[in-house]
Amino acid sequence: MGLSAGTVLADGWEFSGDVGGEVESIGESFGSSILFDTHYDPTEPPEEAIEEIRFRDHDTRANALLRGRLLFSGSNYFDLHGSLRAAPSRTRGDAELETGVRRDAFDAWIGDRIHAQGGGEDPGGGVLNVARVGGRLKSLPALLSMRFAFDHEYSRAGADSLARVFDYRTVRPRLQIRRDLGWRGDLSLEGGLTAKRADRGTSSYDRPWLELGFRYAFPRERTLDLALRTETRRYLESDSLRPTLHEDELRARGTVPLSSRSRTEWMVALHDLQYGTSSSVFRDHLSGEVEGLVSFELGAPKPSSTRDPLLEIPLESLTDSLLLELALGPVEEELDLDDWMRPRLRIGFGARAEALQNEESRRGDYDEFAAVATFARDAISGVWFDLRAEAGRRDYRGSGPRGGLIFEGLDLSLTGTDYRFVSATALAEVPLPYSLLISGFGQFDREWHDESADDFELWLFTLSLTRKF
């Protein structure tokens, strides 16, 4: 949750923060009598599933919460923010710093992020630190610009954590070449390397990747975003649980207005995954996903325009924030900032479909269909929220992977029977009098399998009450 504008200090420095309490509850339950550590989808490497739950304690606890931010804006900028969550059995803290310069010809920055957790009973915790440096060269010939960055990630496991998984170093150099297509969009080519080296175990790998992207905002609020990505993950000590793999992915999404108060949003994704060595769990496959949503803006209608609004706006008015708005929403004939900044209440309905097909065997193939509903209030200030819910069913065309997978001493649940499911996420912020603020996040997933032993439930819930200072 973001912090509001705070106290302005000398020479343009600004400090803000909040203090209060937080309640969080995280848990997973399985229909089987086996006590699994987490639910696992074998379309991703198992160490990634473990890393996702590293700082996730399966428990309900109350935390004392303190957050702060020190900011200096301008052509030379400084941004330091962090938080501390303390409970009797666990303490978690994070801090992030970025400082840099912005010039007409180039940008440059350096930063660092650290996340640490001590205590807790789950196999997580420890320290995760990411140092980064980068820059961008603007106004190159032929409307080109170049962005380069380098990250160094350093991880150390907690006292009761999995050192074979969480003791590692990773470097990520990357380079992007982008060509501006006027004020409406851009074409980019980006490539990089992720090189992970584990202090022990066999999870070291090199992962080169390349991505081609295209974004464009057509007249009358039509948008298109395309991305084609290819990457290869080569394990230095490949085995049955860490096979070398190659991925190709195509993603496309866009919006098409239906009226001044409604629009369609669509998404298509194709994913091809090839393993160096196939097994009963990891098999070459092709998957696809498509989603369509019709959303409506509730409340007073917006003014309509018969002209292309981009042609009516002085170029000097197109700041970065306004360019972002051009891609996300309408622009009136005159630059009406009051209308742009007003709260917007949206509701949406649609459907999502997904399918996976293995190349050599029908075992594990499935079709999935879900109805989707969204409800959101976008606001610069005041109450805002974002809700999404799905309900659907997955049917396997053959028997899918079942049972458990043992990885670094953890039991990962594999379920391959047909099931019905519901999934919901919620994010909200409600300001109260006396500078109080309620913030909340929730996620709930429930699967009802034809085989009750495969049933699964996941919940994550966080609610905080803080006072700004």
The overall pLDDT, averaged over residues, is 85
Look at the structure and give the CATH class: Mainly Beta
First CA to last CA: what distance?
15 Å
Q: Fraction of residues in helices? A: under 10%
Low-confidence stretches: 304-335
Structural class: mainly beta
The strand count comes to 24
**Percent of residues in beta strands:** over 45%
- How much is the radius of gyration in Å? 24 Å
| Helix count from the secondary structure assignment | 4
Topology as a string of helices (H) and strands (E): EEEHEEEEEEHEEEEEEEHHEEEEEEEE
Name of the CATH architecture? Beta Barrel
CATH topology: Maltoporin, Chain A
Query: Given the C-alpha coordinates, what overall shape results?
Result: globular
Question: What does the largest sheet look like?
Answer: 20 strands, antiparallel, barrel
The tally of domains stands at 1
